């Protein structure tokens, strides 16, 4: 695996290194020792998968409040997505900044999302599958989200949103929040 730092503190883009022959290829997608050498969480308690049928589907921006913050290792296993993360840690020099990454089944990239970040993705093709490891169990009472079209974030989504859940469309704007973001 090749680890590339991003413009956001503690988030990493990770490229797989497929080794191929006439059968196809093999690639390591996770190694606890390599993650630890880069200062990343290396214990994951869940693996989740999502499938989105339509191009333009948006999921997120999701996160969990402290002390239930979770790291994620996100990989697109079918189709293509743009994955967007937002730093919600008030003490970070990249607080409320975001970055977008194209993850596809063909480009062999993964995104390490540290605790304290909101996470979202938009599908760039039909029939998309995304798999991600999560470092903390889902805690419904700690679940929060940001509105995908909040002007404070100014995220430039690549496509018009074709499908979004009612919950994701209704998260409060940052300006309307009464509690800390994270």
From TrEMBL:
Pfam families according to UniProt: dTDP_sugar_isom (PF00908)
Q: Please give the catalytic activity noted in the UniProt record.
A: dTDP-4-dehydro-6-deoxy-alpha-D-glucose = dTDP-4-dehydro-beta-L-rhamnose
Enzyme class of the recorded protein, top EC level: isomerase
Its EC number(s):
5.1.3.13
Q: GO CC annotations?
A: cytosol
| Site positions (Participates in a stacking interaction with the thymidine ring of dTDP-4-oxo-6-deoxyglucose) | 138
Protein keywords: Isomerase
- Quaternary arrangement and interactors, per the entry? Homodimer.
Report the function annotation for this chain: Catalyzes the epimerization of the C3' and C5'positions of dTDP-6-deoxy-D-xylo-4-hexulose, forming dTDP-6-deoxy-L-lyxo-4-hexulose.
This protein is called what? dTDP-4-dehydrorhamnose 3,5-epimerase
């Amino acid at each position: 695996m090749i680890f590339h730092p991003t413009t956001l503190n503690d988030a990493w883009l990770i490229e797989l290194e497929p080794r191929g022959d006439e059968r196809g290829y093999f690639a390591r997608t996770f190694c606890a020792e390599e993650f630890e050498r880069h200062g990343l969480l290396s214990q994951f308690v869940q693996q989740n998968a999502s499938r989105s049928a339509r191009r333009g589907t948006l999921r997120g921006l999701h996160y969990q409040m402290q002390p239930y913050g979770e790291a994620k290792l996100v990989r697109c296993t079918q189709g293509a997505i743009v994955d967007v993360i937002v730093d919600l840690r008030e003490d970070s020099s990249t607080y409320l900044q975001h970055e977008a990454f194209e993850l596809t089944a063909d480009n062999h990239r993964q995104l390490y999302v540290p605790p304290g970040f909101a996470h979202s993705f938009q599908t760039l093709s039909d029939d998309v599958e995304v798999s991600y490891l999560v470092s903390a169990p889902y805690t419904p009472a700690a679940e929060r989200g940001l509105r995908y079209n909040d002007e404070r974030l100014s995220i430039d989504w690549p496509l018009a949103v074709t499908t979004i859940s009612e919950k994701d469309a209704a998260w409060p704007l940052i300006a309307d929040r009464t509690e800390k973001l994270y």
